[in-house]
Design brief:
- This protein has about 230 residues and is mainly α.
- It contains 8 helices and 2 strands, in the order H-H-E-E-H-H-H-H-H-H.
- The relative contact order is 0.16.
């Protein structure tokens, strides 16, 4: 899902940066107010976990790759605004240091995986969990479903951003300037594997890690603020 350089035109990646800058500012402000000193080590571990699982890119038919993200897990544990900052940091490091995702596409990749995925997944989780404890079965099911929906939404946004390029960016001969593949190609290429495989993997990782943190007492109801 990491969009590389050269696949999005300036009007797309510029718009994504314009959207993300105020979101980053809001997330930073929220994180400063809510994050407590004693939770910083766990937050660092969570960001590292997200970094590691995103580095396992698996090639899939259609010329793209799939991977887990961990964005919904971070939002369940720390809240969606903190998840936005953590996932954005991971994506920026991956782009600048490892070339995983383009530098010009940082705004788009962060919008898809650091904003849309954690927020939608988090509110699906909250809707299903209701007022039940974090250790309840409803909480675990909510995290699982939220992660599945969040990852697939992120994949869909990626497909849409790539697929509209031949429509909005053409040369004088009508040839695409950036991503050459239309929506009828990008949507199936992204969605089939994410709906049938990677969304399930994301859901399982999320619920298993959350279950482990609860059972080992690392996450406790009285100290939980997600």
């Amino acid at each position: 899902m990491h969009i590389p350089d050269g696949y999005l035109g300036p009007q797309t990646y510029g718009s994504m940066f314009a959207v993300m800058v105020p979101l980053w500012a809001k997330a930073y402000s929220s994180m400063k107010k809510k994050v407590k000193e004693e939770t910083i080590p766990l937050i660092a571990i969570g960001a590292s976990f997200s970094f590691v699982i995103m580095m396992f890119n698996i090639p899939i038919p259609g010329g793209t790759t799939g991977h887990a993200v961990g964005g919904v897990l971070l939002s369940v544990l720390f809240g969606p605004w903190t998840a936005l900052i953590l996932t954005s940091i991971v994506l920026i490091i991956q782009a600048l240091v490892f070339g995983d995702g383009g530098i010009t596409a940082i705004g788009a990749n962060c919008f898809n995986m650091a904003f849309a995925m954690p927020f939608i997944g988090y509110y699906v989780y909250k809707l299903i969990r209701g007022k039940s404890p974090i250790s309840s079965r409803r909480s675990l099911i909510g995290a699982e479903i939220g992660a599945y929906i969040g990852l697939n939404l992120s994949a869909l946004l990626t497909a849409l951003e790539l697929g509209v390029q031949p429509i909005i960016a053409k040369d004088s001969q009508g040839l695409p300037l950036y991503c050459p593949y239309p929506l009828k190609v990008t949507i199936p290429a992204m969605m089939i594997e994410h709906l049938l495989l990677f969304g399930i993997i994301e859901a399982l990782i999320t619920v298993l890690v959350l279950y482990y943190l609860i059972k080992t007492g690392i996450i406790k109801e009285e100290s939980y603020h997600g």
